[in-house]
Amino acid sequence: MTYRQCGTSSVQLPALTLGLWHNFGSVDDFDTATQMILRAFDAGICHFDLANNYGPEPGTAEENFGRILRENLASHRDELFITTKAGHRMWPGVYGDGSSRKNLLASCDQSLRRMGLDYVDVFYSHRYDGVTPIEETMQALVDIVRAGKALYVGLSKYPPELQAQCYAYLREQHVPCLVSQYPASMFRRTSVASAEDSNLSVAAKNGSGFVCFSPLAQGLLTTKYFNGIPANSRAAKATGFLRTEQVTPERVEAARALHAIAQERGQSLPQMALAWLLHDPRVTSVIIGTSSVAQLNDNLHTLDNLAFSADELLRIDQILSHEGVAM
Which of 93, 122, 309, 327 is 20 to 30 A distant from 186 in Cα terms? Predict the structure, then answer.
């Protein structure tokens, strides 16, 4: 496993992180989930990323992860880097959603109980809710760290201008933001663009590490949609995050062209998509979501070839610059 420094801190994170957004909830096969987590750990993936509402049902990914820890990895807690988040709807009523102090403090306690942990390594504010003053949200994160319930704090999905304000507040409280998490992929380059006001640039300027999620654009950066929309795919599900209308001819054609370059590199399209994000040294880690050990093993082979030639990067950029490709 390749490890990278998280921002300006001394924390090292694996280049690949296992995310538990999908495939680890109560509706999923527990034995498969266990096998994936143990395989990831054996391969050097020590970073496991969760959120309070991951499931389905919400909360069950944390419950299952806690059970797997107790039954298989109890003696390895100090070798693990466990992160969770709060900010999206978790329970009914006005306090079960958003970025208020009340929601974050209650959510942190509930997450610790579900996982059977005394602390998490990072507790994130999962989003800016558009209402809560950032001072209230950031102070809640500070107090969670000072209470010993988290070692570090993180931000996820904050607009760049508010992101910078949050970093400043946390620095003043001597609890700097360790890591920032944003969606990023070949089809969603805005988060990692070179512009000074991109999420990645703002994070790097403020010494925060950067973790990318949805690196395969919810499956668009695979061969899955080359021949239409499969019945069991995310795009075919009414409740999925990838909508049918996002599977456009332009993106499918771009994925085909990228696949050809990946084949020349001796990689699958998903492997090259992950490697492309990791090509930027400011990116600390990329979150992978897997449904099987075989898929996890395939993602691990990404690390066999992280280098890109200037010609490859130019050809990739030309493909991604075509109209209608960006998400």
Answer: 122
State residue 134 phi and psi, 5-degree precision.
Answer: -65, -25
Q: Give the number of C-alpha atoms closer than 13 A to the C-alpha of residue 63, restricted to the C-beta side.
A: 12
Q: What is the pTM of this model?
A: 0.94
For the stretch 194-213, what's the b/e string if a residue is b when 16 or more beta carbons lie within 10 angstroms of its beta carbon?
eeeebbbbbbbebebbbbbb
Burial class (CB in 10 A: 0-12, 13-18, 19+), 71: exposed
Count other C-beta atoms under 10 Å from residue 249's C-beta. Answer: 8
pLDDT profile of the chain (327 residues), mean per 10? 97 98 96 98 98 96 98 98 97 94 98 98 97 98 98 96 97 98 89 74 96 94 80 54 78 95 97 97 96 97 97 96 89
Residue 84 CA to residue 93 CA, distance in Å, equals 22
In terms of DSSP bridges, do strands 3-5 and 12-14 run parallel, antiparallel, or are they unpaired? antiparallel
Asked if 61 and 29 count as a contact pair (C-beta separation under 8 A), the reply is no
Looking at residue 237, its pLDDT comes to: 53
CB 41 within 8 A of CB 71: no
Beta strands in the chain (DSSP E): 3-5, 12-14, 16-19, 47-49, 81-86, 120-125, 150-156, 177-183, 209-213, 285-288
State residue 229's pLDDT score: 64
Q: Please say whether the structural domain 3-220+279-291 has been given the CATH code 3.20.20.100.
A: yes
Q: Is the distance from CB of 144 to CB of 150 less than 8 angstroms? A: yes
Sequence-distant (6+) residues with CB within 8 A of 238 are none
- Pairing, β 12-14 against β 120-125: unpaired
- Most distant CA pair in the chain: distance in Å? 54
Residue ranges of domains in the chain = 3-220+279-291
For residues 35 and 78, what is the distance between their CA atoms, to the nearest angstrom?
20
One-letter amino acid for residue 307 of the chain: A
Q: Are 162 and 135 in contact (CB under 8 A)?
A: no
